[in-house]
Amino acid sequence: MKEISYWLFKAEPHIYGIDHLQAAPKKIGRWDGIRNYQARNFLRDQVKLEDQVFIYHSSCKLIGIAGTAKVVKPAYPDPTQFNPQSDYFDQKSNPDNPRWVSVDIQLTNICSKIIPLTELKHYSQLDNMALFKQSRLSIQPVTKEEWDFILGLF
DNA sequence: GCCAACGTTGGC
DNA sequence: GCCAACGTTGGC
User: Fold this and answer.
1) Superfamily the domain A6-151 falls into
2) How many Å from the CA of A12 to C1' of C5?
3) With CB atoms 3.0 to 4.6 Å apart as the test, which of A61, A68, A72, A115 could cross-link to A109 if both were Cys?
């Protein structure tokens, strides 16, 4: 059994955020709609069962880390890519070789108070986070050191 | 709503 | 394979 890895998943809370996970049956939700190849590659090739995930809220009033989740189902074809009704529909994706994947995650903890991006930026321990270096990556790896440090802020 | 950064598309 | 045009992300 390989060691678990740590990740940060971005979400726009008005579309799908920690509140949606909280309200879902068993607090399990499908992480779909990822349409960026670098993020897709992480999701498809590296995110595995039991991995730990920070839920990060972006493009909203209170930007920052909102809680944690764990992966309960690793990569499988994202059904929204084949649904013409979906915003995430992708005409060019071939069902025999799906372009996009989803994972299912289960909410494990909600921060008593969202840890704001502005605060995270202050800690030198977090200087190397992809969050600051490559701000548009919606699925990004987190080191164990970063994970533990941020958990300490909960 | 603005706009910088950066990812994607398509003509050549 | 280059690169200009265009579209999207995401902080402010």
Assistant:
1) ph1033 like domains (3.10.590.10)
2) 28
3) A68
